[in-house]
Give the backbone structure.
Amino acid sequence: MSGQEIIFEKREAIALIRFNRIARRNAWNTQLVRETMAAIRDANADDDVRVIVLTGEGSTYSAGSDFKAPPEPKDESGRSPNPSTLTMGQGEHNWLKLLIESKPVIAAINGPAIGLGATHILAADIRVAAASATFSFPFLRLGAMPECASTALLSRIVGHGRALDLCLRAREIDAQEAYRIGLVTEIFTDAEFQDQVLKLAQSIAAFPALQTKMSKALLWENAGEHDPDAIMRRESGAFVRMLKAVGQARPLDGARRNQS
């Protein structure tokens, strides 16, 4: 399945979503945002999919918002939707909520990631980069501000001081610095990038689906929790649910073996 602005395909247990606006350096317009979010929802509803990968076609990951895109018709609020409003809204337009509640998401940055192209990846669970990738936070230089939950997530990932430095200086960094500060967790050569990303996704897809889902949920839910009792309650509850699920599955598996 593919849309006008993305290529969406399944490779065994992996849903691969590729931004496909090469002429615009994969800059996000409203159609690309809608198609990407719909593709993530479709992948989450597919029991065969275990991992979602976001990447870009061509040599650019994403040049951010497409400021040259024609304006959208005004909505009921009297404003024209744009990529930022479609990711920073409530409910189905909340990019952060969508990815937190999603199956594991890998952002595979194959080239420059600029503005919204650099902030939307922060909600992914794992970020890896090609050696040629760069990351730019040019908002203040453009008279804008960081968005897409980056004002919360960037500090968590790279630390408060580095987040301020990246944004207040409107900095661009290369893949090596992104790795050094923890923005990405691995760098692959450009030639091996796609193969290595798929290999990573396959390794995660091989883990038990329930335990993977609950582990991700606990890590997100407890990330900002300061109450030790609340942390332990969540973990204990998850373990009980896991053991019940495993206990229910084992007799069925045994019955199947006895019937064969």
